[in-house]
Every structure is written in C-alpha cells, then in structure tokens.
Specification:
alpha+beta, 6-stranded mixed sheet, 4-stranded antiparallel sheet, about 35% strand, elongated
C-alpha cells in the first residue's frame, strides 16, 4: 500500500531490521539464530512496488549476496558476530534508482557491553519511507492503484507502537527482577535460619559433651 500525504506526495512506509534468538549448546560455535528483513510499515504487500531485494551479508558467509524476488523479503542465518547488512531495494520500474538501506545486525541488548547473550529474543528495526516525489509514468499507476490518503501518521503511529512495546518489555523485566529479588531475599532468610540452627546445635553438643566429661547426668 502506498500513502499520499496532504501535500500530494506518494510514499511507501517500510521497516527493516532483525530478530535474534540465542542458541543453546550449539555444536557450531554459533551463539544466535537471526533473521534480517524488509517489511511494510503498515502490514501490507510490498510486491506491487518492489521487484527484488538483495541483502549483502558479511563476507564470511557462503554466498553473502542473497536476492529475493517475492515476499517475505528476509534472510535467516546463524552466527556469533554483529555486522552491517546492506539492503538494496529494486523497484518494479527499472528506470527508478535502487534504494540502499543499511542495518547493523544486533544480537545483544544495548545495555550488555560484555555481549552476554540475552535469554530472550532481541529485535532491532527502523522505520523508513520510500518516497516518490515525481513518480515515472510506469510507476505512477502502480502507486495510485495501491494508494490511500494519509496525514503522514505512519511514522508517529509506528513510534508510539514501538514505545508501547518497549514499555511492556521493561515492565515485564521489572516484574521478573522483583521476583528474582524476592527469591534471593527468601534464600538469605533460609540461610540465616540454617546458620542459627547449626550454631544452636553446636552449643547443645558442646553442653552435652561437657556434661559427659564431668559425670553429670
């Protein structure tokens, strides 16, 4: 779906990014399975506008250039390192210049400087717009056939949704942290009780031993 701003400008909202999930006990030495992708920013089909998408991965991968000619425009791999992925979008009108996007593949949370794998899925994505200020005669009917009027709220709406998701994640993490702290506190209380009982038992044993040595009954 294309959108038309109040100024009459046509644009196609997109998001690109990646999701990464930790691998447990991998025999390959890889720490994560990940997917890098290009998707519609409003959940619609991009194929009326896009002829193909090429993802350029790190050169250490077999066939680092991966080209997809139909949705979903995504590549799934596994590995251990973060790197920049180049995303080249070719439009259905060959006279239109390809659009270049760059995404830094993210495997670890930003607050983890030592790059300790998170037990949860990590996601990093960016909202963008493919803008057609002066569509070519071939591209214009494609855009108009899939166009709706919009006040360019896509970016704002997306940001609000992202903020809502981030808030929910932080809330869930806070609840988990509180639960863990409660368990830690409970464990400390149990340890204190165990230590006190152990000390009391030692006192009783010493008293009993002293009584035996003095002949007391």
């Amino acid at each position: 779906m294309a959108l038309k701003s109040t100024a009459g400008e046509l644009f196609v909202p997109v998001v690109y990014g990646n999701v990464a999930t930790p691998l447990i006990n991998s025999s390959t030495g890889h720490t994560h399975k990940w997917t890098v992708y290009l998707r519609s920013g409003v959940g619609k089909d991009l194929s009326p506008f896009i002829s193909k998408v090429t993802f350029k991965l790190h050169e250490s991968f077999t066939k680092p250039n991966r080209t997809l000619t139909s949705p979903p425009y995504e590549v799934t791999e596994s590995g251990w390192g973060e790197f920049e992925v180049q995303i080249k979008v070719h439009l259905n009108d060959p006279s239109e210049q390809p659009i270049m996007m760059h995404h830094f593949l993210k495997l670890y949370e930003s607050h983890s400087p030592e790059k300790v794998a998170s037990p949860e899925r990590v996601q990093s994505e960016t909202y963008d717009e493919i803008v057609f200020p002066s569509p070519t005669p071939q591209m214009l009917p494609i855009l108009e056939a899939n166009c709706i009027d919009a006040k360019r709220k896509a970016a704002k709406d997306y940001d609000e949704e992202e903020k809502s998701q981030i808030t929910a994640i932080h809330t869930a993490k806070a609840k988990i942290a509180d639960s863990i702290q409660m368990l830690v506190d409970k464990d400390r209380e149990i340890e204190k009780t165990h230590t006190a009982m152990k000390e009391e038992l030692q006192i009783l044993e010493k008293a009993q031993s002293a009584g035996i040595k003095t002949g007391k009954r």
